[in-house]
């Protein structure tokens, strides 16, 4: 989890972008890196496989404030999309503070999305993490394509929600702090926040990043 550097007065947090191969994880990070001020970011490191790249860089956002006098530095990672790189996926998830799942909205990629989401839950569980209890958001990427699946179909498949048993959170009106909590056919469920994206154009990229960053900061606070 997050590491504190007392010398620099920084809290270091790890964000991992997960999802199927060629779904837009790398495009998200490349767009963020391009837009972050040079003085606020580290070097972009790329580890190439045969089919795609694993990226890493760190940056210090200037608009998210401090926690008890400490600035927060975010370290952003992507994971290889292909299943046969699962050892690398699992290693990159170690010590994660927040996860972004980048889904490919194309209808023919639904099976790959489902496989990758199940793999995420499995790998998190092996580290002893509960994805339903930590900062987690979903981005439905490639919304500009003509073969993009309807959002409701993607939600039903990838973000069906999990039961909410705490009566204090079972509210008939939306809770502004937990907007994903709803009553569906008599059962209280919570869906993780989600965003539509067209990463190659930057659409939804920073909305997704701000959402996961704020959830991580709230968890730290």
Task: Give a concise summary.
Helices cover 27% and strands 27% of the residues. It has 221 residues and is α/β, with parallel strands linked by helices. The model has no long low-confidence stretch (mean pLDDT 88).
Lay out the secondary structure.
Layout: E1 3-5, E2 10-18, H1 25-35, E3 45-48, E4 53-59, E5 66-67, E6 70-78, H2 86-93, E7 98-104, H3 110-126, E8 136-141, H4 151-158, E9 162-163, E10 181-184, E11 187-190, E12 194-196, H5 205-220
Parallel strand pairs: 2-6, 2-7, 7-8, 8-12
Antiparallel strand pairs: 1-2, 3-4, 4-6, 5-6, 9-11, 10-11
Account of the protein in words:
This protein is α/β, with parallel strands linked by helices and 221 residues long. It is built from five helices and twelve strands. The protein has helices at 25-35, 86-93, 110-126, 151-158, 205-220, and strands at 3-5, 10-18, 45-48, 53-59, 66-67, 70-78, 98-104, 136-141, 162-163, 181-184, 187-190, 194-196. Strands 1, 2, 3, 4, 5, 6, 7, 8 and 12 form a nine-stranded mixed sheet that branches. The chain has a three-stranded antiparallel sheet with strand order 9-11-10, with no helix packed on it. Strand 1 and strand 2 form a beta hairpin. It starts with a strand and ends with a helix. 36% of the residues are buried. The mean pLDDT is 88.
């Amino acid at each position: 989890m997050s590491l504190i550097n007392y010398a620099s007065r920084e809290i270091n947090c790890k964000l991992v972008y997960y999802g199927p191969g060629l779904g837009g994880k790398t495009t998200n990070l490349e767009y963020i890196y391009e837009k972050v001020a040079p003085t606020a970011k580290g070097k972009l490191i790329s580890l190439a496989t045969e089919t795609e790249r694993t990226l890493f860089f760190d940056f210090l956002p200037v608009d998210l404030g401090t926690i008890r006098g400490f600035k927060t530095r975010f370290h952003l990672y992507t994971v290889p999309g292909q299943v046969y790189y699962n050892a690398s996926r699992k290693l990159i998830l170690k010590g994660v503070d927040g996860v972004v799942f980048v889904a490919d909205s194309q209808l023919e990629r639904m099976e790959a999305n489902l496989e990758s989401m199940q793999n995420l839950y499995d790998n998190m569980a092996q580290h002893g993490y509960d994805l339903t209890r930590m900062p987690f958001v979903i981005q439905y990427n490639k919304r500009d394509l003509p073969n993009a699946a309807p959002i409701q179909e993607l939600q039903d498949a990838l973000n069906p929600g999990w039961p909410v048993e705490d009566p204090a959170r079972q509210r008939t009106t939306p809770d502004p702090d937990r907007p994903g909590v709803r009553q569906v056919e008599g059962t209280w469920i919570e869906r993780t926040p989600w965003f539509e994206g067209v990463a190659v154009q930057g659409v939804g990229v920073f909305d997704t990043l701000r959402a996961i960053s704020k959830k991580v900061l709230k968890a730290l606070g």
